[in-house]
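Slide 14.
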Amino acid sequence: MSKAKSFRLSRKQRYAIFAIITAIGVTIAFSNALTSFNYTHTKEWNFDSYQNNTIPSDFATFQSNSPQGLWVAKSDDSAPSKPNVLAALSVGNSSGYHMQIMPDSPTVSDAQISVKFKIVPGHTVEQAGLVVRFIDPSHYFVLMADPLNNRLSLCKADIQFVVCNYEKTVTISTGQWHTLEATISSEGIGGWFDGNEIIKANNQYYQTGQIGLWTKGDTEAYFDDLQAKY
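Slide 15: predicted structure.
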């Protein structure tokens, strides 16, 4: 009678199986963390309380290079909630990154953050985004829309550099309103575009921070209905 041969996994195979099981577990935990959190607070910014074509006195902008971009409360007939939007205008040959952190932004760790935005076509750079986990101008994340390259990116700022480690191809039209949404938790950050989940990043840097808006270079973009549930 022949003896059955014993089957033994090599150490490399055991490590590979363990890594797969661990990755599945992390993915499940991450998904649960992003979708099942019970938010108890809501804060909204629709920019309608400001006078048309004025720079809100309580706003403080950040930029990586000069000249800086200009953030203005502006009337727009196409605004999702009329009459005003917050417009990021380019001034001269502006470059670098331009940020507007909400002056009364809560500092949040678990949150669902969304904003409606429209990028005006015809500029050298057309990139606009939603800032989360803002600690200071050198430490934050931005969920960034880039219609020229048809991509949605989750980028991390670290000492004057913004590195986009998570990118997905998505069609983004200029001159039209879209919605960006970021869900953040201790497990990572999820990126949504027009109601569809595009990016899921198991990234645990900068666990808590403020909320804001972002553009790059000579981008002109309008923002409305910024909301945070936390």
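Speaker note: The CA atoms of residues 132 and 211 lie 5 Å apart.
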